[in-house]
Structure to design on (302 residues):
């Protein structure tokens, strides 16, 4: 049984129907949060309502997984009032991406639970995305190697081109998510911490290179990235500017990550893209930039 909640932005009836169909296509039965279809401007329901649905989903004994309907905005508003003890006592799968990065980071760091950065319930599930959801959540095995999506490799758009920033292999517990969220939480009680020896993954969408530069500056000034075991970047869509005056996305990441002395790569198959794989936050992972692979050395579910 899957609990459907909207901890960030809201959805319309057509999007909700798509989410229900997606769960059915995965062979899953659902329960819907009381406020999962609420819309309160740019967020889904009030903070109190969205928190109520989050706590309900983790407290309901029938629910084995909590699937967020979409990202958007609003999850960070709820972080101070989450009942982390309730969540820790009722461990279950939490999946979503983008704004859901706030929940992944806060819940993992406050409870030690593994959470899953993957498609939201309203995503369009390609065969690649569906295969990795099933293999990661329903039929887990370790070690489990994740390779690039052939569809993404075939794309001509420059943002889909995989490029090694620093060659090598890195191994550590997986942390990370959306860059905008990771930097928005910097300086708060929910910021990334205890990052030494961890493997950081990052993605974003719709951010021009100068804004990405600003966020990488903030991240580097709030976290010692040199202590990481490695950095994996996803596909940064809708970010490169139409003009040729600006630096490109790759120019920015090369500038900030190329001299850290740790393995780093751009363009793995995750982010705001159709063909994305699911990343279990908190498990031991090996990054191999030479082969553009991630290998999950542990299962995210028991």
């Amino acid at each position: 049984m899957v609990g459907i909640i909207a901890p960030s932005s809201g959805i319309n009836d057509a999007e909700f129907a798509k989410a229900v169909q997606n769960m059915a296509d995965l062979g899953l039965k659902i329960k819907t949060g009381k406020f999962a279809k609420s819309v309160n401007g740019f967020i889904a329901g009030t903070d109190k309502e969205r928190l109520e649905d989050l706590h309900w989903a983790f407290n309901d004994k029938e629910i084995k997984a909590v699937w967020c309907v979409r990202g958007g905005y609003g999850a960070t508003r709820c972080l101070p009032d989450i009942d982390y003890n309730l969540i820790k006592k009722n461990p279950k799968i939490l999946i979503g991406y983008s704004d859901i990065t706030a929940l992944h980071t806060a819940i993992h760091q406050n409870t030690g639970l593994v959470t899953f950065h993957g498609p939201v319930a309203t995503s369009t599930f390609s065969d690649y995305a569906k295969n990795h959801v099933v293999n990661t959540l329903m039929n887990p095995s370790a070690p489990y190697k994740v390779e690039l999506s052939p569809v993404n490799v075939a794309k001509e758009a420059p943002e889909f081109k995989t490029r090694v920033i620093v060659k090598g292999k890195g191994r550590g517990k997986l942390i990370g998510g959306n860059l905008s969220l990771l930097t928005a939480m910097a300086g708060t009680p929910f910021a990334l911490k205890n990052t030494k020896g961890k493997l950081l993954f990052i993605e974003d969408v719709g951010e021009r290179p100068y804004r990405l530069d600003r966020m990488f500056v903030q991240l580097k000034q709030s976290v010692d990235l040199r202590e990481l075991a490695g950095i994996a970047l996803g596909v940064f869509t809708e970010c490169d500017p139409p003009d040729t005056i600006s630096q490109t996305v790759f120019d920015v990441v090369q500038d900030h990550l190329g001299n850290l002395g740790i393995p780093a790569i751009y363009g793995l198959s995750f982010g705001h893209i159709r063909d994305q794989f699911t990343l279990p936050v908190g498990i031991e992972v090996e990054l191999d930039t030479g082969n553009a692979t991630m290998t999950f050395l542990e299962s995210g579910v028991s």
Observations:
- Residues 2-125 form a domain with the Rossmann fold fold (CATH 3.40.50.10740).
- The chain has two domains: 2-125, 144-296.
- The first helix runs from residue 13 to 25.
